């Protein structure tokens, strides 16, 4: 949900910090909070935290106070929760008493939109118990409630912001929707980079031409003004510049509109509303109501306030939303007439201290419905990921639990449970609502599932003694995924089920699974095998079963309802067949491709005969035709802005006559479909999977040219190409960094699939519309685009004649012609749904996942999809249901319409009005999901449950799914009694159209499904092929959700604190070393890190650094000096000493044998250190080994050798290289972790020199940094340090042979 209510305290602080007071006198905003914090000791009362008079001096003295709950509840006065005109002692006592007392609240009135204290609760209203945790304290303002209380509200509507004002406020405000004056501030259109678009909207050409023209009002046309049939009026403010007080005085606060408003305050109130709207837009409010707004003694007082913020705008507004603990003073307290800047620090206070005193606004849960720990945990997970994870616990003791993928599918499952059980029983037994979508990772799915299972398997104290608990049902469901790897998400679910298996058995759990989408076969097999593994029967169904079929089966099985039991499910893999495209890979036939003809573009001109047939068909279904009873004031063919390159000719598809940007032309005259076989698109963003999916669809549909003209990726670093497949052949798709460059090179590209993130989607879409001259449509895929951005894009696109689909959409599909991005899912689903050829049915939906279900349903119960669009799940999609319904209505190739709406919004009502008026005549099957909303709200304590989509919440009774279904039914739509009856109704209506001759019967058999190549990696994922690996690794696995070092997860590496030594053990030795061994390795790295700048490696590093080379070059130059003469003695020392020890050579014998071989003993000797000046590093190593190693036999032998060598010369000591080498041999041989063969092998592999290389790299890098920090210049060796020996001098000295 993007629009969330905030506390009154926080809303007033935001206004105090951002209102300027320009043109009016704003009274000081003084607010304080009384808080209840839970006691850490169970059973003890909450701790009451009163505001400190030191922080709020106005609390003391003669100030009279108001105390009220700040919990988003209405009717505070009627509930006895309002204290007026009290001193601080009385206020604090009252607050302490109320905050500890349980109150009973009506189950309605929790939305926070208005504070209607005047309306008493109904006598028979249900109540819920609750405890208050937040109270608001503010000064009591004496005033005349009859003349000085006003009402102002700004609320978000589709085309901008609506301002409502009433001269009467408080309890006398009445029905503001009926009595308040109104002004629409349209969304800004912003700059167009020099282009000159018109402001054309639907309506006559004259009304679209400019700002001041008046046209037929929305009411005259019979449409609601909050949908696409809105027409601008003279009073509207166009939003492209700051709202002015003059406009408000003329169109909102005029004497004609507000006769009861005193003239001396009109200008001040107008200035206040202008400033209020500025803050409203800047801070991305979606609702802001002040009732009453008091004007007395020349000042404006904000008394009661309700507000909502668009949480998707946090990336833009985080700094603006920060609340200071100290209220910014009003202008009259500063003396200068100016206000402190927002976020200003207190004078003299350090900035860091001020930052610590700031916080973000609260978004509280409804009172009486606080978030549980589980819900809070899932909300935190959701905030950390780009996927969607939602959970609402309805009835913790309920026995029906859901784990559903997809925002739309989750609502359908809740509807199905409610319909099967009835609202009352579902209110008791439906335990939760939730959804996961957006391709969550395996670990995220695991955490989500584990949380749900912990709730599901909780046994309440009174049931602990029972041995045979009634069964609990878990529905693991979902629609057909577009791009989510079903097998991958099921792996997370399976892990959680495996962990919870004992608890699931204890509660007699019965698990039912239905899913489709990429790799669903593997996922379902895995779930079925899991059932056998954990001893719990898991019933598994694929996409061939209806989406909610498992609901009824599960409820019958658990004894909730009577009915036919589910068909038997066996454990065999044959129950989950391969989809046609997958099965085709195993066939030996040589036939490739499909049999249908590659026709030209379908004619889209509406002929009189086609319209007559449509009207006749509508009449047969009991729907009023346009000629029978259309109101005379309704134009049966309303106008829309014509796409800039669309032609109006009814006969020639290639004609460009009369094409004009923004020209309002009837949909019936547009000769080219929105998407067709000629459509070419840019992909904005690097989305190779979506590009390949579109190309595969092109190949499947036998397009002659690829639908993807190019990729626009601003971060590409220059123009280049990317490889993709066209069938089995590789092709190159160009990648551009500049939009204008791409448009110039591909003038035929008129569509964009915009994959920009929610942060950049607005800017990217504006740039695309500004720089692609022939642009016809853009699909905005991103979820979380701020509403204000979307509304601005709506206006801009309408002005330019560009069709926007989205945001928050998967796109759409024109079967046999073009598909947007990931629409339709993988190749196998596209084939199963017969999207490679057009059908006769056009549909519109909000949900992308449910669009896939519609594709499949229509392919089985009709002749298939003609065109399908998912408009997106936001509150204000850029194009509405009605936009696309009208497009399909005027397309003669489309014979039947399908609408899948949902709870929330009024778009379906607009469609119903269009049907009732006769504008839409084709038969339509419709259904709005979310019929469970009332039952879920009652179960949740009266708080309406936010479903998966941002727009899926009713703003009034008319916006509920039940109400809209009835409105559509009354208008003449075919609306089933439940979604489960939807397929039968589709088939019935389609068959009747065939019988009437509207749709010609099939005369030829269905063309064979195309046989499509499959990507190698996807075939490998499906287990269809095998291939020998080019590389083998045994130490690291980065394929899963978490990096593995020799089987140990990276989180366990840190959790167990194994350190660098432990990690080295995992990566070098493929095992976890004991703690002493890890510490020894770290000791070696520290000891070998550096030995001064004079040694060869450091010297080389320094010289290279001073030559201006980079870090890698300097480091490598130092490392290349390591060998037998410098630093490379560890391996040699280990080999020599261990061989001598193994041969049982006496130390004297070992030294003599090396002398006879004329070989130096590695690890013996030092230039500086000696027996009388010992090397402390050697002492440290040997002491550590003696203290911690199980045995030090080789080290002891080396020290005996040292006695022999030092007897000859004092500096022939065991040096640090030798000490490390022999100790490491002891570690390998005697730790018990390695066999003798392994220990010898590791020595031969160069492990010990690797330790020196690793350790000394630390020092070399240090020298590089040191020289760069000192800014040392190019090194030149001094000539006086070089012995120059000429050839004749060498010969004279007897060195001629040199």
Question: What are its keywords?
Answer:
about 15% strand; 7-stranded antiparallel β-sheet; transferase; 46 helices; Citrt_syn/SCS-alpha_CS; phosphoprotein; cytoplasm; globular; about 35% helix; ATP binding; about 1300 residues; 7-stranded mixed β-sheet; alpha/beta
Describe the structure.
The chain is of the alpha/beta class and 1298 residues long. It contains 46 helices and 40 strands. The strands form ten sheets. Strands 1, 9, 10, 11, 12, 13 and 14 form a seven-stranded antiparallel sheet that branches. The protein has a seven-stranded mixed sheet with strand order 27-28-26-25-29-30-31, with helices on both faces. It has a six-stranded mixed sheet with strand order 33-32-35-34-36-37, sandwiched between helices. Helix 12 crosses helix 13, helix 24 packs parallel to helix 25 and helix 29 runs parallel beside helix 31. The longest helix has 24 residues, at 1247-1270. It is globular and about 120 Å long. It starts with a strand and ends in a 6-residue tail after the last helix. Residues 109-121, 191-231, 326-356 and 569-671 have low confidence and may be disordered.
Quick overview:
The protein is α/β, with parallel strands linked by helices and 1298 residues long.
User: Radius of gyration from the CA trace?
Assistant: 38 Å
Which segments are poorly predicted (pLDDT under 50) over 5 or more consecutive residues?
Answer: 109-121, 191-231, 326-356, 569-671
What is the mean predicted local confidence, pLDDT? 81
Quaternary assembly: single chain
Q: How many DSSP H or I helices? A: 46
Structural class of the helices, strands and pairings?
alpha/beta
Measure the end-to-end span.
Answer: 86 Å
Enzyme class: transferase
Organism: Fonticula alba
Catalytic activity: oxaloacetate + acetyl-CoA + ADP + phosphate = citrate + ATP + CoA
Keywords: ATP-binding, Cytoplasm, Lipid biosynthesis, Lipid metabolism, Magnesium, Metal-binding, Nucleotide-binding, Phosphoprotein, Transferase
């Amino acid at each position: 949900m993007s629009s969330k209510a905030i506390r009154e305290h926080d809303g007033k602080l935001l206004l105090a910090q951002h209102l300027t007071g320009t043109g009016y006198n704003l009274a000081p905003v003084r607010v304080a909070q009384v808080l209840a914090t839970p006691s850490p000791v169970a059973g003890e009362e909450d701790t009451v935290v009163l505001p400190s008079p030191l922080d709020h001096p106005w609390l003391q003295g003669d100030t009279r106070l108001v105390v009220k709950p700040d919990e988003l509840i209405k009717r505070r006065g009627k509930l006895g929760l309002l204290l007026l005109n009290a001193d601080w002692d009385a206020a604090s006592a009252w607050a302490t008493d109320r905050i500890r007392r349980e109150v009973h609240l009506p189950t309605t009135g929790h939305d926070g939109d208005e504070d209607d204290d005047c309306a008493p609760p109904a006598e028979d209203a249900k109540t819920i118990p609750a405890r208050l945790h937040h109270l608001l304290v503010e000064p009591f303002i004496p005033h005349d409630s009859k003349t000085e209380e006003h009402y102002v509200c700004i609320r978000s509507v589709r085309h901008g912001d609506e301002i409502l004002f009433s001269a009467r406020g408080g309890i006398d405000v009445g029905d503001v929707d009926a009595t308040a004056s109104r002004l629409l501030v349209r969304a800004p259109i912003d700059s167009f980079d020099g282009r000159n678009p018109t402001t054309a909207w639907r309506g006559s050409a004259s009304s679209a031409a400019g700002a001041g023209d008046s046209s037929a009002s929305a009411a005259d046309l019979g449409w609601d003004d909050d949908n696409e049939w809105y027409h601008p009026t003279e009073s509207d403010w166009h939003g492209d510049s700051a709202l002015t007080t003059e406009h408000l005085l003329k169109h909102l606060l005029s004497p004609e509109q507000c006769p009861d408003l005193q003239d001396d305050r009109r200008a001040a109130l107008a200035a206040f509303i202008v400033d209020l709207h500025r803050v409203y837009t800047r801070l991305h409010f979606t609702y802001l109501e002040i009732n009453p707004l008091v004007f007395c003694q020349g000042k404006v007082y904000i008394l009661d306030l309700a507000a909502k913020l668009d949480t998707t705008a946090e990336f833009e507004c985080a700094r603006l939303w920060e609340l200071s603990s100290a209220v910014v003073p009003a202008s009259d307290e500063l003396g200068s007439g100016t206000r402190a800047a927002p976020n200003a620090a207190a004078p003299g206070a350090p900035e860091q201290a001020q930052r610590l005193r700031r916080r973000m606004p609260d978004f509280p849960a409804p009172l009486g419905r606080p978030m549980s720990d589980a819900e809070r945990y899932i909300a935190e997970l959701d905030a950390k990921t780009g996927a969607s994870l939602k959970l609402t616990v309805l009835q913790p003791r309920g026995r029906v639990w859901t784990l559903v993928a997809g925002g739309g599918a989750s609502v359908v499952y809740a509807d199905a449970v409610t319909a099967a059980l009835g609202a009352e029983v579902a209110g008791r037994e439906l335990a939760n609502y939730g959804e996961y979508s957006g391709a969550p990772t395996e670990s995220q799915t695991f955490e989500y599932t584990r949380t749900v299972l912990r709730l599901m398997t909780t046994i309440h104290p009174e049931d602990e003694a029972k041995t045979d608990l009634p069964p609990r049902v878990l529905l693991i469901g979902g629609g057909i995924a577009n791009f989510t790897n079903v097998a991958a998400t099921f792996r997370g679910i399976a892990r959680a089920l495996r962990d919870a298996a004992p608890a699931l058995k204890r509660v007699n759990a019965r698990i039912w699974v239905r899913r489709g989408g990429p790799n669903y076969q593997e996922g379902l097999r895995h779930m079925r095998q899991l059932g056998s593994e954990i001893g719990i029967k898991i019933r598994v169904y694929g996409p061939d079963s209806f989406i909610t079929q498992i609901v009824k089966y599960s409820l019958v099985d658990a004894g909730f309802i009577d009915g036919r039991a589910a068909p038997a499910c066996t454990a065999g893999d044959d129950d989950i067949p391969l989809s046609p495209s997958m099965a085709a890979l195993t066939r030996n036939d040589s036939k490739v491709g499909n049999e249908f003809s590659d026709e030209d573009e379908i004619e889209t001109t509406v002929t009189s005969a086609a319209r007559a047939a449509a009207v006749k068909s509508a009449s047969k279904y009991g729907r009023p035709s346009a000629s029978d009873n259309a109101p005379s004031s309704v134009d049966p063919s309303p106008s829309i802005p014509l796409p800039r390159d669309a032609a109006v000719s009814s006969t020639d598809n290639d004609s460009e006559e009369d094409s004009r940007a923004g020209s309002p032309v009837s949909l019936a005259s547009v000769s080219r479909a929105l998407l067709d076989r000629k459509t070419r698109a840019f992909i904005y963003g690097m989305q190779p999977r979506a590009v390949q999916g579109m190309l595969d669809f092109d190949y499947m549909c036998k397009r002659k040219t690829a639908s993807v003209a190019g990729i626009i990726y601003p971060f590409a670093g220059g123009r280049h190409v990317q490889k993709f497949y066209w069938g089995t052949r590789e092709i190159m798709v160009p990648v551009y960094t500049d939009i204008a460059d791409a448009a110039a090179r591909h003038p035929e590209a008129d569509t964009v699939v915009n994959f920009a993130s929610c942060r950049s989607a607005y800017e990217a879409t504006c740039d695309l519309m500004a720089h692609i001259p022939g642009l016809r449509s853009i699909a905005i895929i991103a979820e979380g685009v701020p509403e204000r951005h979307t509304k601005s894009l709506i206006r801009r696109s309408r002005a330019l004649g560009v069709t926007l689909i989205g945001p928050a959409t998967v796109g759409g599909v024109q079967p046999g012609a073009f598909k947007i991005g990931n629409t339709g899912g993988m190749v196998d689903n596209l084939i199963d749904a017969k999207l490679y050829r057009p059908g006769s049915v056009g549909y519109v939906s909000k949900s992308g996942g449910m669009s896939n279900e519609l594709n499949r349903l229509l392919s089985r119960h009709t002749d298939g999809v003609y065109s399908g669009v998912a408009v997106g799940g936001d509150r204000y999609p850029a194009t509405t249901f009605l936009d696309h319904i009208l497009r399909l209505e005027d397309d003669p190739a489309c014979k039947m319409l399908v609408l899948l709406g949902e709870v929330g919004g009024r778009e379906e009502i607009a469609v119903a009005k269009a049907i009732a008026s006769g504008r839409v005549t084709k038969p339509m099957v419709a259904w709005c999901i979310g019929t469970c909303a009332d039952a879920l709200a009652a179960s949740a304590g009266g708080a309406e449950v936010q479903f998966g989509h941002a727009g899926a919440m009713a703003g009034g009774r008319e916006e509920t799914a039940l109400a809209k279904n009835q409105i559509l039914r009354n208008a003449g739509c075919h609306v089933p009694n439940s979604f489960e009856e939807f397929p039968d109704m589709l088939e019935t209506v389609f068959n009747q159209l065939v019988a009437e001759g509207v749709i010609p019967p099939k005369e030829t058999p269905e063309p064979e499904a195309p046989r499509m190549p499959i990507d190698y990696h996807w075939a490998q994922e499906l287990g269809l092929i095998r291939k020998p690996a080019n590389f083998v690794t045994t130490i690291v696995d980065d394929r899963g959700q978490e990096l593995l070092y020799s089987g140990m997860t990276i989180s366990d590496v840190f959790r167990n604190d194994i350190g660098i030594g432990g990690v080295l053990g995992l990566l070098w030795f493929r095992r976890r070393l004991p703690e002493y061994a890890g510490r020894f390795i770290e000791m070696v790295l520290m000891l070998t890190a550096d030995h001064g700048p004079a040694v060869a490696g450091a010297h080389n590093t320094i010289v290279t650094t001073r030559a201006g080379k980079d870090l890698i070059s300097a480091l490598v130059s130092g490392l290349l000096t390591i060998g037998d003469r410098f630093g490379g003695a560890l391996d040699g020392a280990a080999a020599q000493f261990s061989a001598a020890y193994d041969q049982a050579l006496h130390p004297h014998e070992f030294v003599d044998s090396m002398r006879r071989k004329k070989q130096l003993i590695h690890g013996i000797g030092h230039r500086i250190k000696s027996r009388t000046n010992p090397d402390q590093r050697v002492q440290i190593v040997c002491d550590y080994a003696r203290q911690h190693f199980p045995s030090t036999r080789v080290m002891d032998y080396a020290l005996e050798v040292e006695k022999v060598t030092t007897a000859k010369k004092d500096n022939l000591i065991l040096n640090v290289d030798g000490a490390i080498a022999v100790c490491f041999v002891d570690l390998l041989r005697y730790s018990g972790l390695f066999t003798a063969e392994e220990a010898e092998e590791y020595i031969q592999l160069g492990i010990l020199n690797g330790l020196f290389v690793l350790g000394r790299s630390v020092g070399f890098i240090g020298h590089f940094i040191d020289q760069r920090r000192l800014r040392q210049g190019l090194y030149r060796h001094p000539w006086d340090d070089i012995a120059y020996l000429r050839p004749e001098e060498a010969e004279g000295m007897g060195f001629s042979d040199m």
